[in-house]
Design goal:
The protein is mainly beta. The strands form 8 sheets. It has a 22-stranded antiparallel β-barrel. Strands 1, 2, 5, 8 and 9 form a 5-stranded mixed sheet that branches. A hairpin with a 2-residue loop joins strand 1 (24-32) and strand 2 (35-36). The model is unreliable at 3-22 and 509-514 (pLDDT under 50).
Length: 760
């Protein structure tokens, strides 16, 4: 068990728990269709105590304080119920509940599409929502890996050695994905991968996905879509939670959540994540670690300040420290930065803070802020990369109603970005002095949500930003929604614009490895994109089952797109704005089917075409699959308290970056599938044991994915005067060491075992 886990549990046991005189009790039976329903949660909100129904549907709660309390009953697939009951000392209340089937997803509250809380069913913007139960079907040490089971989203590794990566949405690469925590921009540039690791999953309430440009609300980088991680509110969180699992490869991950009250008006939530993997494995025999060794700790704290029982000010902070390395199996820290044994060693320190303050006035005016600092100390072989990035963000929004048709949102935002590193990206024009980047990005935005009538809704918005380097930027958007009279069918059409100001060195790992030199053809201009989406949703609620069908057509057109050229010169990466067009288009289909007998099925598929056209020549984008599919099948054996989850994905061939016409590696990856199986046993209401197998088919990439793994410092490679590789006896294919030929993890089949324990 992790040392930090032992320390935290020890501290937890020493905490003083305030216990009031508790003498009342509550009992009853829970049924559905005149049959007992087991494992339904009964929760007394005022005092955070509860129980779950047994196999016969009976429940019992004792030690309840006297007075009036809210009793809540909830279970997946049923309508949640709340009842006010008055408890008296020495009195036992008998109260039965009859459940009704419902699609809870229709009533979920989302904020990502409009910056305002709205029921998902009524949102004019198509939002996908994935709750904490979804991510428990295939436990992972980070949200980054958990996203692999969402249709149209693929975590992409960018390096075979250090295993850093980014998130692709509908084929668009990581720099186009904007990541937020509780609606605040936290992740960008240098820290994309680190923003999705180290978030204690025990504190995640849900994840909202918006596919397509959202720059009108979120500004630069929200081009391909946004991922908004919503954490739990302290008032609704468990008193204590522990989720820890380990794998047969030697990975160990622990998540801890602890709710605390500083006073009657100040409530907090503490989260700790620790992930460690220190077991070098080389199953493919290339002499390099198949999985990067890591030691990461993350601390998360969230505080709510209440007024009249509602939060008026909340703020959160997170700190991450990580050491990771991948490389030759006999590497040691003493070799760091030398040319004796190759490795990529990365030390990362990162802090984040964000919050929301509701002004104490009658109008709905909120001030939101976020800030983060990222310090990275890395060596890619002998090449050092040391970088500092600091981002500050502030936003003031005002929401008001005009009549009964117009919901107006007006806001102003300011974002400051400081970036400095030891590469020529921050050199002055004379090439001798350091010149860190200071980017100012003030902006204003206006949004009008128009209720044309009960079935038609129109959303119009526009944003203006002034970039201190590139000048004026405008981002308009329009969304239209139609829903049927029964509210079980809807069509959404969206048209929007996105923009992104690129900093190549903060987002492309391949530019930093030292395996290739970097070259700019011209001054990089901001990228812009236009997107149109057509979304259709049909919800069919039967007596004992729910079926949701969701289809989406998308089309993205890019101007000034910045693309790295890996192919013109195998020893260089050449960046320039595209002199032509880039198009991403396709269709995605989702089906969600849930029966009350304990079986549920979630399946999806995406077919897309991502191409680049320059000089009338069209090519397919690198590392982009033509089709992908995901599925999640769950079956509950309620009488035994067992849940069986079978999850997986499948990806079509991707074009891979070769080093030249003589490169012997395949130009396209093969079609592959990663599948997982998990069995969970619920023990009463406070504990779960789960075990399973990951990567059932034991799929791994080709063993020659790293070019010239035996010569990582290119000591036997010959170059001409222009830097081109010269084929030789020792290097007949004209290759250099290169770890960028990667499309999935080298980690094969493995067992895992975990424990989930909670205190209400």
């Amino acid at each position: 068990m992790n040392l930090i886990l032992i320390n935290v549990l020890f501290c937890f046991l020493l905490m003083r728990l305030d216990v009031c005189a508790q003498t009342a009790s509550l009992q009853g039976k829970i049924t559905f269709n005149n049959s007992p329903e087991p494992f339904v949660n009964v929760f007394i909100n005022n005092f955070s105590i509860g129980a779950s129904s047994n196999i016969e549907g009976n429940y019992f709660i004792d030690d309840i304080p006297s007075g009036t309390s809210t009793v809540e009953v909830s279970a997946i697939g049923f309508i949640s119920q709340k009842h006010e009951l008055t408890f008296e000392e020495g009195v036992s209340i008998n109260f039965d509940f009859t459940l009704e089937v419902a699609d809870d997803r229709l009533n979920e509250i989302v904020i990502s599409g409009t910056l305002m809380p709205v029921i998902k069913l009524e949102s004019p913007v198509a939002i996908e929502v994935y709750n904490k139960q979804f991510f428990k079907k295939n436990p992972n040490p980070s949200i980054f890996e958990s996203l692999q089971n969402i249709n149209g989203i693929r975590p992409q590794l960018n390096c075979n050695v250090c295993n850093t990566g980014d998130i692709h949405i509908n084929g668009l690469e990581g720099p186009y994905t904007f990541v937020l925590i509780d609606g605040m921009p936290i992740v960008s540039g240098l820290s994309t991968v680190y923003g999705l690791t180290g978030i204690p999953q025990s504190l995640v309430e849900r994840v909202e996905i918006l596919k397509g440009p959202a720059s009108t609300l979120y500004g630069s980088e929200a081009v391909g879509g946004i991922i908004n991680i919503i954490t739990k509110q302290p008032i609704n969180a468990l008193r204590f939670s522990l989720d820890s699992f380990g794998s047969s490869w030697g990975e160990l991950n622990s998540d801890i959540g602890l709710r605390y009250n500083l006073s009657s008006k100040v409530r907090g939530l503490l989260g700790i994540n620790h992930f460690v993997y220190q077991n070098p494995i080389d199953n493919n025999g290339d002499g390099f670690t198949d999985l990067t060794l890591q030691n990461r700790i993350s601390l998360f704290n969230k505080i709510d300040f209440l007024r009249d029982g509602k939060p008026i000010f909340n703020m959160a902070a997170r700190y991450i420290y990580e050491e990771r390395w991948g490389g030759e199996m006999n590497w040691k820290p003493s070799y760091r930065g030398s040319d004796l044994i190759y490795a990529e060693s990365i030390y990362t320190k990162r802090w984040e803070t964000f919050g929301t303050y509701k002004l104490p006035i009658d109008s709905d005016v909120k001030f939101q802020f976020s800030g983060n600092g990222h310090i990275q100390n890395s060596y890619y072989g002998v090449t050092p990369y040391k970088a500092d990035q600091y981002i500050g963000f502030g936003q003031l929004t005002w929401n008001t109603l005009i009549g009964n048709k117009h919901s107006i949102l007006f806001g102003g935002a300011y974002r400051y970005t400081f970036y400095d590193d030891n590469t020529f990206a921050t050199l002055s024009e004379d090439g001798f002095n350091n010149n860190p980047s200071n980017l100012h990005l003030p902006g204003i935005f206006l949004q009008d949500e128009i209720n044309l009538n009960e079935w038609h809704k129109l959303l119009l918005g526009i944003r203006y930003d002034y970039n201190s380097i590139h000048g004026n930027v405008f981002s308009p958007r329009a969304n239209y929604k139609w829903s049927s009279e029964e509210k079980n069918e809807s069509i959404r059409i969206s048209l929007g614009n996105g923009f992104r100001v690129a900093n190549v060195f903060t987002e492309d790992h391949a530019a930093l490895t030292g395996a290739r030199s970097v070259e700019f053809n011209d001054d990089l201009k901001p990228e812009t994109s236009w997107n149109i989406n057509l979304n259709y949703v049909k919800n069919i609620i039967f007596k004992e089952s729910i079926l949701t069908l969701d289809g989406n057509l998308f089309y993205n057109y890019f101007a000034n797109r910045i693309l790295p050229d890996y192919e013109s010169n195998p020893n260089k990466i050449i960046y320039s704005n595209l002199d032509g067009k880039s198009v991403s288009k396709g269709i995605s289909l989702n089906m969600d089917f849930m029966l009350q007998n304990g079986l549920s099925l979630l399946a999806g598929a995406t077919f897309m075409d991502v191409s680049v056209t320059e000089k009338q020549i069209e090519t397919k984008q690198l590392l982009t699959e033509r089709f992908s599919g995901v599925w999640s099948i769950t079956y509950q054996v309620k009488s035994l308290g067992l849940t069986i989850d079978y999850t997986g994905n499948v990806y079509g061939p991707m074009r891979l970056p070769l080093l030249g016409p003589l490169d012997p590696r395949d130009e396209y990856s093969q079609c592959f599938s990663i599948q997982n199986l998990q069995v969970t046993k619920k023990i009463q209401n406070t504990m779960e044991l789960y075990l399973g197998v990951k990567n059932l088919l034991n799929f791994t990439p080709p063993s020659n994915s790293i070019a010239r793994a035996f010569d990582p410092f290119d000591k036997e490679v010959q170059f001409d005067n222009e830097g081109q590789v010269i084929p030789s006896i020792n290097n007949p294919n004209g290759l250099t060491f290169d770890p960028s030929y990667v499309f999935t993890s080298n980690q094969g089949i493995r067992l895992f075992l975990g424990l989930n324990f909670v205190i209400y």
